[in-house]
Amino acid sequence: MSTIQNSIDIIIKQGMLPLYFNADESKSIALLKTLYNVGIRAVEYTSRGPEALSNFKKMIEVRNAEMPGMLLGIGTIKNLAQAETYYLAGADFFISPGFVPEIASFLIAKEVLYAPGCMTPTEIIAAENAGVKFIKLFPGNILGPDFMSGIRDVFPNLIFMPTGGVDTTRQSIETWFKAGVSAVGMGSKLISKEVMEYEAYETIEKETKRVLDLIATIKG
User: Fold this and answer.
1) Choosing from 13, 25, 33, 44, which is the catalytic residue?
2) Which long-range contacts (CB under 8 A, 24 or more apart) does 170-174 make?
3) Which of 128, 136, 178, 189 is catalytic?
4) Is 136 an active-site residue?
């Protein structure tokens, strides 16, 4: 099995992809451990600030030592230089807010999963023609489940995951899955700034467990 397919399988199995960034290295690591302890095996750390790279390298170090089986991906990758940097840092998969052909070429050649953000059929076709297998529907709150329902039959060989605007409620998650997605990206709705600020890891643990159980029920 290719490493690309393995990454896709792990994300689909858990049905969700938690994503976050925190400038504080210790908080970033503590949250990663929390998610791992509750059964999460794929996490997207977003490259949103100047501390992102150094934090990510430390997280990889801790992951390698303490969290077997955990995939740590990097998000908000917008150019080839960033992709190369995080590839060398050990990122397991890469996610962009938009489709960048150079990144697709670089990562697919390395057998690494690249999931670009797309919001039009034209962008999805361009990504598919470049060899991309996994599409991030972004922003999910603008597109909505009806968009997914409308394009599903046109792209039977692609995996879709909305990010942005997916709530932690059963109604929100179930509507997306019924529309045809294989996983949902979970950012601030799952990991809010408040719980991170107060280091309320127990709250995140309980909420993540609830969402995982909910998705398992929805998927049947």
Assistant:
1) 44
2) 170/214, 170/218, 173/211, 173/214, 173/215, 173/218, 174/218
3) 136
4) yes
